[in-house]
UniProtKB/TrEMBL annotation:
Its EC number is 1.3.5.1. Pfam families: Fer2_3, Fer4_7. Its cofactor is [4Fe-4S] cluster; [2Fe-2S] cluster; [3Fe-4S] cluster. GO terms for molecular function: 2 iron, 2 sulfur cluster binding; 3 iron, 4 sulfur cluster binding; 4 iron, 4 sulfur cluster binding; electron transfer activity; metal ion binding; succinate dehydrogenase (quinone) activity. Keywords: 2Fe-2S, 3Fe-4S, 4Fe-4S, Iron, Iron-sulfur, Metal-binding, Oxidoreductase, Tricarboxylic acid cycle. It comes from the Bacteria. InterPro entries: 2Fe-2S_ferredoxin-like_sf (IPR036010), 2Fe2S_fd_BS (IPR006058), 4Fe4S_Fe-S-bd (IPR017896), 4Fe4S_Fe_S_CS (IPR017900), Beta-grasp_dom_sf (IPR012675), Helical_ferredxn (IPR009051), SDH/FRD_Iron-Sulfur (IPR050573), Succ_DH/fum_Rdtase_Fe-S (IPR004489). GO terms for biological process: respiratory electron transport chain; tricarboxylic acid cycle. It comes from Corynebacterium marinum DSM 44953. This is succinate dehydrogenase. Residues 150-179 form the 4Fe-4S ferredoxin-type domain. The lineage of its organism: Bacteria, Bacillati, Actinomycetota, Actinomycetes, Mycobacteriales. It is an enzyme of class 1 (oxidoreductase).
Length: 249
């Protein structure tokens, strides 16, 4: 299968970038987006040319490292699927495929398609943890949690922090990401101790580094973990609860 690729090339954070055209005459429909880039880079290395930089790790849809834009959409045309699992079977002979980094003011480009997503890490640092006394782990049976609540918590804990929701949002909001973390930890027994403090600190950092959510819904459409749009409501709910209950919660 012949494809024409428009791939973003940028030497560094302070350099101007531009698209570079690459012809691929022998793409295979079963290739993933990342395998296509591997194929291109192998050829470039063989020609003593600089390969394109992009991020990846597990390539199993778990780690969230592989975020990039494919024809203007985070990860690719497939709904709720990471780039490492997006196959070329959805493209046709002669198609033009544009590959570029996740686009958001919160994600500055490091090089080519590699971006700095540490803004998400900073949100997590503000409250994405639980504080417990170190020592012998408590018996699991002493922490009562019914099945329905546990499943709901796990559904939100599935967020892999890839940043696709931020890149998809016209405002560059990270409310789906933050809301997923707040819901997950608010439902777990060990996470309830610092519920109010967590909400205040995480939402304050969210509003400092990301845009305002206007409920467009594009975030849930591209989320590889399938985090529901209802997670966005948790940001306002948890912050309002913390304000009502005071600083001691």
């Amino acid at each position: 299968m012949k494809l024409t690729l428009e791939i973003w090339r940028q030497a560094g954070p302070t350099q101007e970038g531009a698209f570079e055209t690459v012809q691929v005459p022998d793409a295979v429909p079963q290739m993933s987006i990342l395998e296509l880039l591997d194929h291109v880079n192998n050829r470039l290395v063989g020609e003593n040319k600089e390969p394109f930089m992009f991020a990846s790790d597990c390539r199993e849809g778990i780690c969230g490292t592989c975020g990039l834009m494919v024809n203007g959409r985070p990860h690719g045309p497939g709904q709720n699927t990471p780039a490492c699992q997006q196959r070329l079977v959805g493209f046709s002979e002669g198609d033009v495929v544009k590959l570029e980094p996740l686009r958001s003011a919160a994600f500055p480009v490091i090089k080519d398609m590699v971006v700095d997503r540490s803004a998400l890490d900073r949100v997590m640092e503000k409250g994405g943890y639980v504080s417990i006394n170190a020592g012998t782990a408590p018996d699991a049976d002493t922490l009562h949690l019914n099945h329905e609540v546990a499943e709901l918590a796990l559904d939100h804990a599935a967020c892999i922090g890839c940043g696709a929701c931020v890149a998809a949002c016209p405002n560059g909001a990270a409310h789906l990401f933050t809301g997923a973390k707040l819901v997950h930890l608010s439902l777990m027994p060990l996470g309830k101790e610092e519920r109010g403090k967590r909400a205040r600190h995480m939402v304050d950092d969210l509003e400092t580094n990301f845009g305002h959510c206007s409920l467009f819904g594009e975030c849930a459409d591209v989320c590889p973990a399938g985090i529901p749009l209802t997670a966005v409501a948790a940001v306002t709910k948890e912050r309002a609860r913390a304000a009502f209950r005071g600083k001691d919660d």
